[in-house]
Fold this protein.
Amino acid sequence: MEEKKNHSMFFVSNNLSFLPFVFFVVAILILGLLKGFSIDAFVAFAIVGLIIGTFFAKNWGEYWNCIAEGMRDKSTGLLATIFLLAGLFSAVMGQGRVAEGMVWLGQRINLSGGLFVGFTFFASALFGTATGTSVGTVITMIPIFYPAGLVLGGNPVLLLGAILSGAAFGDNLAPVSDTTILSAISQKYKNKEGTASIGGVVKTRLQYSLIAGVISLVLFILLGGKGSIPVGATVNIASYSDPKGLLMLIPFAVVLSIALSGKSIYAALIWGIISGAVVGLLSGIFTPASFVRLESGNVVGIIPEGIGGIFGSILIYMAIMGMMGIIRESGALDRMLNWMTKRYAKTPRGCEGTIFSITTIMELLNAGVTTSVVAIMGPIANEIGQKFHLHPYRRANLVDAVGNSWAYFIPWSAFIFIAISITEGMKSVYPFLVTPAPTQFFFAVFHPWFLWLVMLFATITGYGRTFEGKNGEVVQANFKNEIPKELAD
C-alpha cells in the first residue's frame, strides 16, 4: 500500500477534497429528517456540492478534470448500463401484473403480513445466492414482492429492507459473486504459492452469514407485518388479485436460469425483457400499445417510462464517483488509510480492527458499490494481514462481510437509489405504493447490519480467527490475540 505523493490541490489542506461529499451526505440526511424525497433534488445537491468545492481548489480546471476522471471509472459505465436495463425489466414486470399473481397466491396459502416479508427475505437471499448478483436481485425482486407485500399487509420499509437484505446475503455468500471471487483471489498465502480458494472462503464464512441470516429472518417475520398502506383509503384486495399474473414468473425463471448458467447480468436482463414481452402479449396482459404510444402529445409506455425513470439514479452515481475522483487524486484518502494502518495494526486484533475499520470507511465513500470496496480493500488486507500470519480465508471473509454491510443501508447508497427508482416507476400501475425516504432504510435492512455486528464481535473476541501454518494450513487461534508461537517470525 503506497501513499500517493500528490501536490497541494486545495487551499489550506487537501482534506478539503472531502467537502463536496460531506455537503451531499448532509443534504440527504436533512431531507430525510424533513421527510422530503426527490431524486431531482438529490442530483441537484450533488452538483451544488461539487460547485462549492471549486472555490477551495487552487486550479479549477484540474479540479473538474479530476471529477471527469472519476466519472469515467469503469464501475460508472457498468452500473449505468445495468440501471438502464433494470428500469426496462422492472417496467415489464411491474406492468405485467406479477404482483397481482403473488397476491392471489398469498391469499390462497395464507401468506401475509410478517410471514410474507420473511418469505420475501428468504426468496431474495435464495435468488442472490444462486445468481451472485446483488443488483440483479434488487431489480428482479421488487416488482414481484413489493406491491404484493403491501396489499397483503407488509410494512413498506421492511419489505424493501428484506429484498436488500437478501441481495446482501447472496453477494456475500454466493460462490459466483464478484465480491466473493475478488476477496478470495486477492488474498495470497505467505508460506506457499497461490491464493485463497473460493470453496474454502465460502465454507468458512458460513459461520458468520448464517448467524446474521437467521436473526434477520426472525425479525422480518416478527416486525414485517406492523405497518399499513397510507393511501387515505383501503385498498381493494380483489382488484389486485389475479392468477394470470403468475405467468410473469416465467421471465423471472428465464433471468434466474441464464444467471445460473454463468452468463452476464446483461444477458439475463435482456432475455428477461424479451420473454416478459412475449408472455405478456400472448397472455393478453399487454398489447403492442403497452410498450410505446402517444398520449396528448407525450410518448408513454413501458419502454420510455422504464428507461426514463432510472436517469436520476445514474446522474447521482456519476456525481458521487466524480467526488471520489477528487478525493483519490488529492491523496487525502491514501494518507488517512496509511495513518490508520501504522497506528493501529500492531497485534492480530489490531490488524483485523484496521481492516474492519478501513473497509467500513471505504463503504461510506463508495456509495454502495461493493465490488469497488472489495477490489480496493483486498490488496490492503493481504499486505497487512500477512504480517500477522492471518489466514487468507480469514482476511477474505473480513473484507467481504464488512464490504457487504453498510453499502445496503446508508442513505446515499446506489442500492437505495435503485430501490427508490424502481418503486417510483411502478406507481403508475400501483398508485398505493409508498416510496420511503433514503434515511428510512438505515435500520430496516437487517442482514447487512447483523453481518457487520457479527464481524465486529469476531474481530474483538477472535471468534473464527485463524492463522496460516508453515505449509499454508489453517491454525486455530482459540480467541487469543497473539500469533501462535510456532508461527512467530
Observations:
- The chain has one domain: 74-318+331-487.
- The chain has 20 helices and four strands.
